[in-house]
Amino acid sequence: xxxxxxxxxxxxxxxxxxxxxxxxxALADRGHEAAVFNPAPAPAALIADAGLxxxxxxxxxxxxxxxxLIGVSRAWDTEELFACIFSDEESVRANTALxxxxxxxxxxxxxxxxxxxxxxxxxxxxxxxLASVLQGNFHPESGGYLYWTGERPANLRSAAPxxxxxxxxxxxxxxxxxxxxxxGDLSLIVGTPETDPVSPTAQxxxxxxxxxxxxxxxxxxxxxxxxxxxxxxxxxxxxxxxAGAAGSTACDSIVVxxxxxxxxxxxxxxxxxxxxxxxxxxxxxxxxxxxHHAAYLPGCAMAERSDVMVYxxxxxxxxxxxxxxxxxxxxxxxxxxxxxxxRLVALxxxxxxxxxxxxxxxxxxxxxxxxxxxxxxxxEPSYRSSALRVAExxxxxxxxxxxxxxxEQFAAxxx
Length: 415
Description:
Elements: E1 3-8, H1 15-29, E2 33-36, H2 41-49, E3 53-54, H3 69-74, H4 78-85, H5 89-106, E4 110-114, H6 117-126, E5 130-135, H7 160-169, E6 186-190, E7 205-208, H8 221-224, E8 232-236, H9 254-264, E9 270-274, E10 291-294, H10 299-305, E11 308-311, H11 315-324, E12 328-330, H12 335-346, E13 350-352, E14 356-357, E15 363-364, H13 367-379, H14 381-394, H15 399-414
């Protein structure tokens, strides 16, 4: 049996753990030792729900680092996004050392990573085989987030000088692009060639959608009791406020909740709001009478129960909706999410309503346009037909079990 450690960017959101936890669970069920590392509260709750080991933080001080969240929200691609969050040399040094310590202690046979530059660099430093699990637009041979705007501008920022300096301290060669760290010795792409295209020359394998639901999980009775004569709209905000009560950021998804409340309150629609183990911000106030809130619900079951899904454009939410054949209305809060949304819309499986950035850093939505989009997707059968077509095509791919097969074979080949 082999030892696997699953790492990722430790953001307090469920997108990355949602794609890694099912693979880790599958490998653990086969008798392998599979541990996950993400100390953020919401991912930790998901990891615990899966019955997996979430490794504790090593005893190492990690300095606070400034992040350009406006830059993150507008990043052209992953390389520019990393420049916005990994510009502080001391933070990169400390986080790299933390992952090196973690791997030395755990002694994995394979590191399985999704979007975790520090885990990828630590695996390179220690010579540990790396399997990456990425969405298409995270891969270094993708068209980036703003693929429809033309060629990548030449003057975009990069964190490569910072990472190269830290790599040199471990005797590693310079790093031309930080995004190149993400491409593992084995690279798996969540989604299909039509949902997540990459360059034809990329050495990758598409594995279809990966969605998480504990095997015996069921929807609570109150969901089943909803009046079947009214449509169900599932609104998923993800993390509404990344800074919590401290204030707004350019990446917040509270706009999704506000749009739903403004457009759907008191309508003949059941609105089920989930926040991914997050609290609804106090500033939201009381929810309308036709709204029902749960911090978390089993995703596969809820997607199948829903007539329309409304969310922020996160890749895992796109996969959840398409795998269930449920159409979407997406309010993308950053360019990466807009990229995912545009792919889904191009497939005919939903609509996109762009928020507007205001001077105070908040996002606003055209409520009438959003309400009209929801009503169109509810009323026009072609959206669901398109989503069901994509769902059927996705069945040709193996999902988490196929990912586990390939990672298991990869581990055996590297012993």
